[in-house]
Amino acid sequence: MVDFLDELEACVPALRRYARALTRNIDHADDLVQDCLERAISRRGLFRPSGPMRPWLFTILVNLHRNARRTAQRRGKHLDADSLPDLGTPAPQHSHLALAELSRAIDDLPLEQKETLLLVTLEGMAYAEAAGILDIPLGTLMSRLGRARASLRQSTGEDQQPHLRSVK
């Protein structure tokens, strides 16, 4: 039988990766994961080992992130001086620009679409597992995922490039 803390520890890399993608800030992500682990340990009696621990932990992390965003919205936007671009820096290469453009487009997605997209694409979760974590029906998850992908295509200009049609 796998020990609770061992299983918890095995989930930490995935939690950190998802938290970093959600927050786009390493320090905030680490704080979010720490809060998630603290909450999981303090409420370990609520965990029912009828299934894997991973979805339970991701649910805790998502809820903590949503609560933090609501609190931050009430306080107003925080401007981090370290995140401001250095105007004297030469432009990065094209692939870096494309990656930065995609990153900004993901950041601009509504939270529900961003959570869905990251769980499915970054974490590679099955639709049913991601829907369970977000506590939404499977159809809603698929709809959010479709809207997120369409929004990304539009934001990055992918939907405006000519597509090759196959000739029969």
Automatic annotation (TrEMBL):
For this UniProt record, the keywords arranged alphabetically read as follows: Sigma factor, Transcription, Transcription regulation
Q: Is this entry keyworded DNA-binding? A: no
- RNA polymerase sigma factor 70 region 4 type domain residues: 100-152
Checking InterPro entries in the record gives: PhyR_sigma2 (IPR053866), RNA_pol_sigma-70-like (IPR039425), RNA_pol_sigma-70_dom (IPR014284), RNA_pol_sigma70_r4_t2 (IPR013249), RNA_pol_sigma_r2 (IPR013325), RNA_pol_sigma_r3/r4-like (IPR013324), WH-like_DNA-bd_sf (IPR036388)
GO BP annotations listed: DNA-templated transcription initiation
Bilayer-crossing regions: none
An example of a GO molecular function for this protein is: sigma factor activity
Instruction: Using the record's annotation, list all stretches that form the PhyR sigma2 domain.
Output: 9-61
Family the UniProt entry places it in: Belongs to the sigma-70 factor family. ECF subfamily.
Q: What is this protein called?
A: Sigma-70 family RNA polymerase sigma factor
